[in-house]
Amino acid sequence: MAGPRVRHRDPLEETLTALDHAVASGRVRYVGVSNFSAWQTARAATWQAAFPGRAPVVATQMEYSLLERGVEREVVPAAGTLGLGLLPWSPLGRGVLTGKYRHGRPADSRAASPHFEPFVAPYLEPRCSSIVEAVVTAAGGLGVSPMEVALTWVRDRPGVVAPILGARTVGQLLGALSVEEMELPAEITQALDDVSAIPVGYPERDGSSQ
């Protein structure tokens, strides 16, 4: 699947035409978008659907995890309405949901790297720590790893097709693949929903004051 990361100065129609060519020439089979806002996603999907013969947009790739649920405000509803599958990237909250940063920054971790530290740092603040602790508690009660709990949670969110795994080792990959048959009890899912809930207001919330 091909998916564009369009800069604001790039004409969207030009980018989508290139993707049409990629599908028509057999280079890719499906077209998706990545890191688009809801309105950009809707614009791309409806543009492609408006002209016969164009490759339909079938998926959107967005950061989504217990530590980053912003896509639930508008992107998830838009994707559902448009019939797009959601492919979450960084489903483990940039590695933080594994619990490895609970007591410091391991020397071999991204947070210990000057290059990657800014990528991880936003998820090392107190609110995120409370979510990580909830995941660790749930994992302990179920006899599984925090990684398995976090991956299962995002896998089962509405509209999600498959989380994108960023495993660096065979062990990490095997651990991530082990969640295929795993299910979280409803009460644990609800507890994780509650502790990681994001504020949603006008205009996303139904029944907002007028």
Give the CATH superfamily of the domain at 64-195. NADP-dependent oxidoreductase domain
The number of helical segments is 8
Name of the level-1 CATH class of the domain at 64-195: Alpha Beta
Distance linking N and C termini:
42 Å
Major pleated sheet: 3 strands, parallel
CATH names the topology of the domain at 64-195 as TIM Barrel
Shape: globular
The count of β-strands is 3
Per CATH, the architecture of the domain at 64-195 is: Alpha-Beta Barrel
Helix content: 25-40%
Q: How much strand content do the residues show?
A: 5-15%
Tell me the series of helices and strands, N- to C-terminal: HEHEHEHHHHH
What topology, given as strand order, has the largest sheet? 1-2-3
Task: Describe the overall structure.
GO terms for molecular function: oxidoreductase activity. InterPro entries: AKR_Detox_Biosynth, Aldo/ket_reductase_CS, NAD(P)_OxRdtase_dom_sf, NADP_OxRdtase_dom. The protein is mostly helical and 210 residues long. It has a domain at 64-195: TIM Barrel (Alpha-Beta Barrel). It contains eight helices and three strands; from the N terminus they run αβαβαβααααα. Helix 2 (38-49) runs parallel beside helix 3, helix 5 (126-142) packs across helix 6 (146-155) and helix 5 packs antiparallel against helix 8. The longest helix has 17 residues, at 126-142. The radius of gyration is 19 Å and the shape is globular.
